[in-house]
Amino acid sequence: MARIGFVGLGNMGAPMARNLARAGHEVAVFDLSAEAMARAEGAAPAASGADAAGGAEFVLTMLPAGQHVREAWLGAGGLAAAAGPEAVLIDCSTIDVATAREVAGAAGRPFLDAPVSGGVMGAEAGTLTFMVGGPEEGFARAEPVLRAMGRTVVHCGAAGAGQAAKACNNMLLAVSMIGTCEAFVLAEKLGLSHEALFEVASKSSGQCWSLTTYCPVPGPVPGSPANRDYKPGFAAALMLKDLGLAQQAAGETGAATPMGARALELYRRFVEEGGAGTDFSGIIGMLRGG
Length: 290
Ligand code: NAD
Known about the structure:
The chain is α/β, with parallel strands linked by helices and about 290 residues long. It has 14 helices and 9 strands.
C-alpha cells in the first residue's frame, strides 16, 4: 500500500480520498477549507499541501481550475518542490490543456494530468473514468492507485492528452445533447410523440448516448434526469466550464469548432437564465422557448 498526499477535498476530492483510504493506502490530506478537511474520513489531516506531499509516493490534486493547479504545484511552498524526487505527481482537476502541459513541464519529474468523468456519484462509488496524459512509466505506477477510485483508466498519450480527451468528449456530448433536444422540440411541433421519435431514432442513424442513455424528455429512459425534473446529474454550469476549455483549446490550436462555439453560447445563455444548477439536459426547456 502506498503513502499518498491528496490536496483539494471538495465535492469530488473528498470521496476520492476516502476511497483511497478505504483501499488501505496511507492518505494525508489538505484543503484550504476546514469544513472540507472534515469530510475526508479515514485520512490524516496535514497542516499544509507541502506537509501532505512530503514523503508521499503519490501526490494528487483535485482543484477547481487551472490557476489553482498552477499555484498549488508551482507557487511558493508548492507541491512539486515538497514532494520527493521519486514521487508520481497527478492532477485530477479539469483544466485547460495549456496549463496542464505547463505544470507538467515545470514539475521536473513524472506528472500526469488525469481528469475524470462520472461526477460526484462516480467519485463516491469509486467508478470514475480517468483519462490520463503523461509518461508511460508514471502511468504504469499510478494506474493501481487510480483504480482504487475508478473503474476505467485510459492512457491517452503525453502530457495534456487527458485534458484534451476530456475537452473533446464533453464538446461532443454538448453538441449531441443540443441536437437531441432540438429533435424532440421539432417532433413536438410536428405532433410526433416522444415515444415514437425515441423508438425510431434509438434504432437508426440518429442513435447517440444523449438519446439512449440520457434522454432529455421524461419517459423513454426512466433513469435519465428528465424524469426527476432535471436534477443533476451533470450540472449545466460544469458543462459550460468544459465548453469554455474546449473553445480555449480550439482557439490556441486553430481548430474549427463552429458547433462547439454555438454550444458554448447556448449553455452560457441557459446558465445566465438560471440553469446553472440544472442538469445539462434541461436545456431542452430553453430551446422550446426559442
Ligand atoms: P469543489 O469546488 O467542490 O472543490 C474544490 C476544493 O479545492 C475546495 O474544497 C477548495 O477549498 C479546494 N482548494 C482550492 N484551492 C486550493 C489550494 N490551493 N489548496 C488546497 N485546497 C484548495 O470542486 P469539485 O466539484 O470537487 O471539482 C473539482 C474538479 O473536478 C474541478 O476541476 C471540476 O471541473 C472537476 N470535475 C467535477 C465534477 C463534478 O461533478 N463536481 C465532475 C468531473 C470533474
